[in-house]
């Protein structure tokens, strides 16, 4: 039975082999494993790399200020409620502290008293000046009278001496001499009295001058007291000003915790407010009001560290706020934090949007995008690179061999990546900057299955290569130190 079947099976196998093309032609078409691999080549071409960094975010008011009381008080009256638009300086509420207002009125009266004291002191100065003038005149008058009395004394001294001679010659009776001596003594007494009057006038003049100086000092002191009183009045006036809560800028009231008669504290705001209110923090109770400025709103985008150097003020951006509009709103980066957040390793970028009609509401969800553009840079497709740890490599075609070369890269758009420098052999490193030379576009880089290549192995270039397929590839998790703006390869949606 088996012998009968064998010729039939043999004939069937021969027929199948012939039908499948078995024979010498099949053996000739089979490639030998010893043949060098066939590869495609590409050179670093000039490209415009556009990378988009986007993140979910939210709309924030340009400014948002909680209003707390400066002092312990009662709410006397509240004027505005949530949703009300206010102008800068508009009254939001008034507080009630009667003892403060009374103290303020007292200080205002003190100022008026101090001003009156200055007027009185000035009048005293005028009176003292007049008294000084009068005392000085009395001194002059007394001294003038003293001369008259001195002349009378001298006259009677001469008369007495003359009569003494006459009496000695018995020409004049001694009684006449005695009368003249009495007159002499009388004039001497009057002269001495006038000398005392002059001294008294001089002393009185000195006293009046001292009173004048004292009156002028009183004016200075009264003016100083006025300054103190006015300073106290202004201090209390400032405190009284705190009894009126006003809007710090044009905006909208987004929270109100004020109620008539509420007892409020400067350290904790309104303790009677709902503890679940959005503006209540563990450290402080609710503010009396919260005012938001909405003519400009802000959207935050946190830029990863690898892209931080490429984001500057003025970088193109867009914001999508679906609750407001289905189309992205074009904008620019208005400001950056300049320094990275040490925890998240990101750079805070802010995009300001004009919101004159207040249609974009703070708190809305938004998606912010920052567009990083590098025009006219040398680039390679991502599938032309390989990675080892934090190093990036490409395979260059040189002298019909595959040469593994370390390179430095820049930003990527998900298909192409900027290439900046390549490391040269150690023999040439002494003539370069740390062994790196710029990529000038003359390098021939191998495309294809790079996993089959070995450094220094012979490769064969496809004579009729097809257009190189640019494939997306995952970047290394950590950028290589020294890479210029290593930014990864995955395009951000």
Q: Please, could you describe this protein's structure?
A:
- The protein has 493 residues and is of the alpha+beta class.
- Helix content is 34%, strand content 31%.
- It has 5 helices and 20 strands.
- Strand 14 (385-388) and strand 15 (391-398) form a beta hairpin.
- Helix 3 packs antiparallel against helix 4 (174-241).
- The chain is elongated, with a radius of gyration of 54 Å.
Helix count, DSSP H or I runs of 4 or more residues:
5
Biggest sheet: strands, sense, closure? 6 strands, antiparallel, barrel
SSE arrangement, N to C: HHEEEEEHHEEEEEEEEEEEEHEEE
Q: Characterize the overall form.
A: elongated
Let me know the average pLDDT. Answer: 82
List the helices and strands and how they pair.
Blueprint lengths: L1 H18 L4 H6 L8 E5 L2 E23 L5 E6 L6 E2 L4 E6 L1 H71 L5 H68 L2 E3 L4 E6 L6 E2 L24 E16 L11 E5 L8 E12 L5 E9 L10 E17 L3 E4 L2 E8 L2 E12 L3 E8 L2 H4 L6 E3 L6 E3 L12 E2 L32
Parallel strand pairs: 1-20
Antiparallel strand pairs: 1-19, 2-9, 2-13, 3-5, 3-8, 4-7, 5-6, 7-9, 9-12, 10-11, 10-13, 11-12, 13-17, 14-15, 15-16, 16-17, 17-18
């Amino acid at each position: 039975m088996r012998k009968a079947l064998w010729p039939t099976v043999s004939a069937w196998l021969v027929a199948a082999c012939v039908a499948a093309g078995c024979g010498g032609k099949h053996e000739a078409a089979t490639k030998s494993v010893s043949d060098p691999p066939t590869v495609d080549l590409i050179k670093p071409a000039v490209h415009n790399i556009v990378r988009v960094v986007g993140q979910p975010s939210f709309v924030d008011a340009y400014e948002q200020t909680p209003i707390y009381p400066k002092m312990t008080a009662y709410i006397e009256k509240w004027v505005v409620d949530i949703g009300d638009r206010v102008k800068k300086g508009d009254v939001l509420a008034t507080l009630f502290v009667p003892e403060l207002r009374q103290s303020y009125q007292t200080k205002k009266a003190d100022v008026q008293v101090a001003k009156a004291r200055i007027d009185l002191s000035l009048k005293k100065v005028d009176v003292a000046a007049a008294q000084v003038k009068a005392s000085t005149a009395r001194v002059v008058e007394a001294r003038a009278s003293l001369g008259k009395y001195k002349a009378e004394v001298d006259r009677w001294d001469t008369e007495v001496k003359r009569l003494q001679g006459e009496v000695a010659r018995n020409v004049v009776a001694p009684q006449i001499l005695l009368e003249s001596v009495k007159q002499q003594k009388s004039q001497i007494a009057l002269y001495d009295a006038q000398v005392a009057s002059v001294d008294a006038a001089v002393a009185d003049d000195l006293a009046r001058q001292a009173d004048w100086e004292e009156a002028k000092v009183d004016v200075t002191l009264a003016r100083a007291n006025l300054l103190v009183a006015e300073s106290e009045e202004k201090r209390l006036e400032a405190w009284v000003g705190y009894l009126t809560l006003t809007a710090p800028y044009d905006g909208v009231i987004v929270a109100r915790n004020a109620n008539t008669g509420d007892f409020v504290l400067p350290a904790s705001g309104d303790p009677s407010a709902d503890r679940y209110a959005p503006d209540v923090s563990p450290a402080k109770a609710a503010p009396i009001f919260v005012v938001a400025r909405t003519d400009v709103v802000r959207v935050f985008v946190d830029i990863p560290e690898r892209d931080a150097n490429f984001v500057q003020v003025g970088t193109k951006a867009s914001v999508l706020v679906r609750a407001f509009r289905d189309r992205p709103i074009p904008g620019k980066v208005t400001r950056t934090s300049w320094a990275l957040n040490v925890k998240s390793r990101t750079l805070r970028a802010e995009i300001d949007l004009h919101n004159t009609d207040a249609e974009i509401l703070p708190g809305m969800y938004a998606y912010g995008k920052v567009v990083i553009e590098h025009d006219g840079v040398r680039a390679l497709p991502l599938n032309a690179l390989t990675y080892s740890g934090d190093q990036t490599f490409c395979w260059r075609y040189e002298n019909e061999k595959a040469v593994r070369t370390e390179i430095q890269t820049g930003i990527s758009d998900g298909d192409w990546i900027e290439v900046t420098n390549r490391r040269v052999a150690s023999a040439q490193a002494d003539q370069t900057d740390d062994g790196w030379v710029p990529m000038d576009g003359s390098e021939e880089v191998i495309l294809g299955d790079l996993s089959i290549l070995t450094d220094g192995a012979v490769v064969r270039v496809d004579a009729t290569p097809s257009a190189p397929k640019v494939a997306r590839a995952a970047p290394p998790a950590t950028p290589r130190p020294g890479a210029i703006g290593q930014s990864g390869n995955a395009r951000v949606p």
